[in-house]
Every structure is written in structure tokens, then in C-alpha cells.
Amino acid sequence: MGQAVKRHAVSDLAATLRSGDWLTRERVRLWCAALLGVSGLALAVVAATSNGMTDYQGRPLATDFSCFWTAGRLVLDGHPAAAYDDAALAALQRATFGPQTPFYGWLYPPFFLLVAALLATLPYPLALSAWLATTIALYVLAIRTILQTAADPATPRERGGPDRLWLLVALAFPAVLVTVGHGQNGFLTAALFGGALAVLDRRPLLAGVLIGLLVYKPQFGLLIPLALLAGGRWRTIAAAAATVVVFAGVTLALLGPEPWRAFLAVSGAVRTEVLEQGVAGWHKLHGVFAWTRFWGGPVDLAYGLHAIVALATALAVVWAFRARVRPALRAALLLVGTLVVAPHSHDYDLMLLGPALAFLITDATRHGFGPWEKTLLAVVYAVPLFTRAVAEHLMIPLGTIVILALLITILWRCTNGGGLAAAPSDSVIAPLAKLPPRPN
Predict the structure, then answer these.
(1) In this predicted model, what pLDDT tens digit does every residue of 136-146 receive, in sequence order?
(2) CA distance to 112, 118, 169, 343, per residue, from 272 (Å)
(3) Are 369 and 427 in contact (CB under 8 A)?
(4) SS (H, E, C) the chain
(5) Coiled-coil segments, which residues (predicted)?
């Protein structure tokens, strides 16, 4: 009798997870409000126990932002190439934040030195505040644009204005807390990439400019040219190329050639130390390469497995853009595929899952959810909060596993999702996409 009850309970649980009926609107509202409240409280505690420059542990506030600001100071002092000199950068960080400050290296191409220099014109706390406020606003704008673009024009505007649950869900996304804690550029990356894909069909030149500005994250640009070429997006390609050329020209004119020489000189060492040797910790990285090295696989095997998965993902993206699958699905596929193909990504780079989820939500709202999809989307939403701790303590690369599962789900929707039943009326996800269409 007891075994029968257990089997029945397991069967009921599986059925509930499969249908996603547990993911009600009210539960999402409460959980997201709790997430946002706890995140805000944690940040408030850190701010209250800091001295304005360092936290209670003596680390720079928003740790990684310290390398942005100090690299910018070197630019303003007339030594932009010194940002790639670990000794010089570390000395400035210790002089600024204290002699026990851990080293935060500068790994970006010279393009991003222009942004760093602009930030360094402000005192550190003010620069950090301005950086986070601006990039969070851009991220929110990109999510809203995605929802507006994919909204059904036949859906009447709800009385009292558009539903605001989307804003709570976007701000409570755990990757937001991770990115704020690091002071990183995840918001900017998500805004540029997600915004470009949102306007790709309507404003191809603007999409190209936004894509061109992503050049500061070269590891995330591997699939974009393939997708644009496969889709025949010639105006977007031209705009992106022109943006990169202009950006490079401005950087060269303002900073000279030395930063470029220094960047190229250290690139090989960065690949060896960060990617192959995992000096920062493989538990912090995502991707098949990091997974293989994390579990003790040799470098050659890691490259081989990564190449196989990357090639399969690239072929899928090319097919999706050539086949003209639904725009929201091909956008989500490119965003998630970028995380799969990138040689490495950190937990703050999981901000790319934000716009990917927004595209998937809008597609599923209009065309229906498949089995297990609501539950998977909930897991994807939550995973940035746990991925580093689970990898570090349990040796399970949770982030990589979930990203691969999401990629497979998107491919399934691309090939089999057209005949799905309409989403149930009590779906938590459906109201998120009911934003009014952009007025003409």
C-alpha cells in the first residue's frame, strides 16, 4: 500500500512538472518579489558595511569593476597599454583599494578602454553607480523591446495600461544580482545583443550598429556572422562592419597603436591561463571545454569535444536563419548558441539568458508550451543563482548542463513546435508579452 502511494505521488509530481501547471502567475509574482527583496537587502548590507571603496572583506566594491576603473585611470594618465601589464595594473589597484587587494585583470580588447576611461573620470563610487544604473536601464529597455516586438497586434491593450509583471521578472532574474555584485558588463552585453535581435527585422541598420558595438566581447561574436550571412542580412552586416571599423579607428586615434600591440601580445597567455589552466577556477566557467577540464580531461580532449558541440550548434543556427523559422525562436537559438560556442563564459555572462527567455516566452505565449517547457524555463531562470556553488561543491557543471538542455528545447520548438496547443489562460507567462505594440 505504501509503495503504491509513493508511486502515485511520484506520478503526480512528474505530471505536474511536465505540464508546468505549478507555475502560476501568483507564485511567480511572490517568488520574484522575494528574490528581488533579498537581493536588494544583500546589496544594501554590502553598501552599509563598506567604506565607499571596499566591502567588509577589504575587496573593492563590485570586485570586477575595479579593473574597469583602474584600467581607465591608466588611460587618463597617458598609459593605456599598461592596462595589459599585470604588474602595473595590480600596483594601481593596491594603491587605490589597499595593499591586500586581490588582483583583477584586464582581459578586454582596446575598444573597451574608451568606456573604462570615461568611467574613470568619476570617483569610484559614483562611477560604479552610473555604470550599473545606465546598463541596467539599457537591459530593461531591451527586454521591453523584445516583448513589444513579439506582441500580438490583435491583442487589445489591457485597461489601465500594459502588464508590469515583466519588469519584476526581469529585475529579479538572479543573473542581475550576480552582475551587480561583480560590477560587470553583463547588462550591456544582454542589452546590445537582445536589442539587436529584437529590431533585426524592422530596423536592420540599427541592429547592425548594436551588433558592431558588441566587439568588446569577441568570444560572443563567433555565431553572429554565420547567422547574418545565412539569413542574407546584408544591410545589418554592412552596418556592423562599419561600426567596428569606426570604433577601431576612434580607438586607434585616441589611444594609439600601443594598446593593440599589448593586447595581441598577452592574448595567448590569457587563453592558456584562463581557459586551459583554469587559474580563475573552472567552476566559474561555462561551456563544454570548461566542463571537460573541470572533470580532469586533457586539453586536447576538451578542444575536440568543444569543437564537435560548437560545429553542431553553428549548423543549427545557420539552418534556423536560412529556414526562416519564427523570429523569436531563431533569436533565442542564437543567444543560447552563443553561450554554447563561446570558449568560455562566466556566471555574469548568463545575463544573455534574460533576452533568450523573453524571446521564448513570447513565442510560447502565442504558439503554446510543450511538455516540460515551463519547468525548464523556471530552472533556467533560477540557475545563475546556484551554478557557481553547485559546481564548486558538488562538481556538477549545472550552468552548462542547463544551457545545453535549453538549446535542445529551442531546436525542438523550431522543428516540432508549430502544432502545439494554445497556452492555458492561467499561464504566468502569457501576460508578460501583452505589451502594447509600438505606435507607428
Answers:
(1) 999 999 999 99
(2) 22, 30, 38, 12
(3) yes
(4) CHHHHHHHHHHHHHHHHHHCCCCEHHHHHHHHHHHHHHHHHHHHHHHHCCCCCECCCCCECCCCHHHHHHHHHHHHCCCHHHHHCHHHHHHHHHHHHCCCCCCCCCCCCCHHHHHHHHHHCCCHHHHHHHHHHHHHHHHHHHHHHHHHHHCCCCCCCCCCCCCCHHHHHHHHCHHHHHHHHHCCCHHHHHHHHHHHHHCCCCCHHHHHHHHHHHHHCHHHCCCHHHHHHHCCCHHHHHHHHHHHHHHHHHHHHHHCCHHHHHHHHHHHHHHHHHHHCCCCCHHHCECHHHHHHHCCCCHHHHHHHHHHHHHHHHHHHHHHHHHCCCHHHHHHHHHHHHHHHCCCECHHHHHHHHHHHHHHHHHHHHHCCCCCHHHHHHHHHHHHHCHHHHHHHHCCCHHHHHHHHHHHHHHHHHHHHHHCCCCCCCECCHHHHCCCCCCC
(5) none
- Which pLDDT value is given to residue 78? 95
- Other CB atoms within a 10 A radius of the CB of residue 146 amount to 30
HSE of 263 in the Cβ direction (CA atoms, 13 Å)? Answer: 19
In one-letter notation, the amino acid at residue 315 is: L
359: pLDDT strictly greater than 50: yes
Domain boundaries defined on the chain:
58-151+163-433
Residue 192 C-alpha cell reads as 546590445
Residue 412's nearest CA partner among 420, 422, 400 is 420
Q: Give the end-to-end CA distance of the chain in Å, rounded to a whole number.
A: 65
Grid coordinates representing 381? 531562470
What length is written for the chain? Answer: 440
The string of pLDDT tens digits covering residues 191-224 is 999 999 999 999 999 999 999 999 999 999 999 9
Other C-beta atoms closer than 10 Å to the C-beta of 63 total 18
Return the closest-CA partner of residue 39 out of 170, 177, 135, 132. 177
Between 233 and 161, where is the model more confident? Answer: 233
Around Cβ 300, how many Cβ atoms within 10 Å? 9
C-alpha cell at 27: 507564485
Q: At what angle do helices 124-150 and 327-341 cross, to 10 degrees?
A: 140
Q: Which three cell numbers stand for residue 373?
A: 517547457
Reported pTM: 0.90
Phi, psi of 286 (to 5 degrees): -125, 155
